[in-house]
Amino acid sequence: MAEVKKVKGWRDVAIGGLVEPGTSEQYNTGSWRTYRPVWHADRCIHCLQCWAFCPDSSIVVKDEKFSGFDYYHCKGCGLCAKMCPVKGEKAITMILETEAAKAEKK
Amino acid sequence: MSTTAVSKGAGSKFTPHEIMGLSGNEAAAEALKQVNPDVAAVFPITPQTELMHKFAEYVANGAVDTELINVESEHSAMSATVGASAAGARAVTATSANGLALMWEIVAIASSLRLPIVMPVVNRAISGPLNIHCDHSDTMGCRDLGWIQLYSEDSQEAYDNMIQAFRIAEDKSVMLPVMVTFDGFIISHTMERVEIIADDGVVRKFVGEYKPENYLLNAQHPVTYGPLDLPDWLFEHKRQEVQGFLNAPEVIKKVGREYGQITGRSYDLLENYRMDDAELAVVALGSTAGTAKAAIDELRDEGVKAGLVKIRCFRPFPGKELCATLGRCKAVSVMDRSFSFGLEGGPVFNEIRGAAYGAGLKVPMVSHIYGIGGRDINVTQIRGIFEGLKKLASGGRIETVENYVGLRE
Fold first, then answer.
1. Same domain, yes or no: B239 and B279
2. A105: pLDDT strictly greater than 90
3. Does B152 fall in a domain?
4. Domain annotation covers residue B205
5. Domain locations in chain A?
């Protein structure tokens, strides 16, 4: 998961507006999110359908198992929750960012 | 064209040279031939046409390996040059006046992308009404577009500046495009004695192999040139451009010194002519500097302490150096070969007066605008300017800041 970095000054970047590859990694697209995906460990079967469908490579996998979200890049599209094949209550659900923020404050 | 390979005296420390009879255009083309750039995008415009015409002969004869691109306009010429330079090539083009105006948009893009393009600009009046002869309205008009500007006094300087321009542009601390200017017809079409470095290899060694750091054709390290640069970044990129200009004077002087070690002709930002004890001075650039020297020689013979400061490098502007010299004078005239409409005095005058304020100079300073649209300027007229300076130096008032030389009233 990329760390939140200080915005660079004029001395720190290539001259002439030249862009090197992979700069989107530094871009905090997580700030665009309205809904946040939340993982429920007890229901997860580690099929990794979420990982396969995530358009922003924001499902973090460790030892072939789901291990978390990259909230720095996750835009909250909800595809992971939609694709989760678990019957009944899914292993990934979407909650409003505002609700998540309130819960974090408590 | 008769040529003789000579060295400057027996056991000369300078590289052997050939003396040639060349016009300014031919001299610049000769320099380009010796540098052997990778790409040249060419489009004809008077009075530059002959320059790239001559260079095209070198391409056709196999004297250079350059890829010559015939384009359909100057906008395309500069676009092709930018593309070639971004791709990793040492790229050149050339133009004059309205051609420069048509490529305007891409002229600014070339500098903002920090592409070390070299472009001779043969000075000609910007239309209209239509005029094909020399003044500086074309290059003065784009003085804020981020190009280094070197002005040449004669064909020799056009040749010398062309060779040095590559080293200056491509210096890693500079990375800015360079315009080498010389006066249309007065220099471009006048045959003069020019010393050419006899061995092309010496020129190519001086200029060095072009090794771009980031370029589009580098598959190992792909980059994007010219992306959208919104309010969060453009300011920073412009500040970087400023740094290129802050670094440029030292590089221009260093390259000028090294060039002198090879040829015996050293270059600086300015040339001070008989300025050591001068009380009255004119500032000029381009071919008029030569005319002014002739006038000053006459005045010196008559006991008048007259001198000239010739600006070779107009961008970056050598304000401190100018003030250090002009501060010792009693009266100064700045000669401009173009107008800055709506502003009192020509562009060079206003920049010098601005620098003078910062340096605390009290010397009376006037603007003389001359030579518009190729109007002749002669020794007698420049002597006339010094007559006016004499009055100012002895306590006379500045009646008009903007004065005209050679205008029919």
1. no
2. no
3. yes
4. no
5. 28-98
DSSP string, B193-207: EEEEES-HHHHHHHH
| B210 to chain A, closest Cα gap in Å | 18
Is residue A9 within 8 angstroms of chain B, CB to CB?
yes
β partners of residue A95: A36
How many CA within 13 A on the CB side of residue B237? Answer: 23
Mean pLDDT score, B344-348: 98
CB-CB neighbors (< 8 A) of B234 in chain A: 17
Pair B258, B282 in one domain: no
Q: What is the largest CA-CA distance in chain B?
A: 69
Point out the residue among B221, B223, B244 whose CB comes nearest to the CB of A19. Answer: B223
- Report d(CA B59, CA B93) in Å as an integer: 14
Which tens digit of pLDDT belongs to each residue from B181-228? 999 999 999 999 999 999 999 999 999 999 999 999 999 999 999 999
The dihedral formed by the CA atoms of B82, B85, B91 and B95, expressed in degrees to the nearest 10: 10
Same structural domain for residues B32 and B163?
A: yes
Do A97 and A36 meet the contact criterion of CB atoms below 8 Å apart? yes
At the topology level, CATH places domain A28-98 in Alpha-Beta Plaits (3.30.70)
Q: Which residue has the tokens 């005058």?
A: B349
CB-CB under 8 Å, A16 with B240:
yes
* Dihedral sign (CA B142, B146, B152, B157): negative
| Rounded Cα gap, residues B59 and B69, in angstroms | 11
DSSP-derived secondary structure letter, B95: B
Q: What is the pTM of this model?
A: 0.89
**Res B1 pLDDT > 50:** no
Burial class (CB in 10 A: 0-12, 13-18, 19+), B377: buried
Buried b (16+ CB within 10 A) or exposed e, B72-103: eebbbbbbbbbbbbbbbbbbbbbbbbbbbbbb
Sort strands B178-183 and B270-273 into parallel, antiparallel or unpaired. unpaired
ipTM of the complex: 0.84
B155: containing domain = 16-195+229-263
Measured in angstroms, the CA of A19 and the nearest CA of chain B are apart by: 5
Which residues have CB under 8 Å from B312's CB, separation 6+?
Answer: B150, B151, B152, B157, B161, B267, B268, B269, B270, B271, B285
In whole angstroms, give the CA distance from residue B393 to residue B330: 5
Chosen domain end from B238, B263, B288: B263
Query: Are A18 and B113 inside 8 Å of each other by CB?
Result: yes
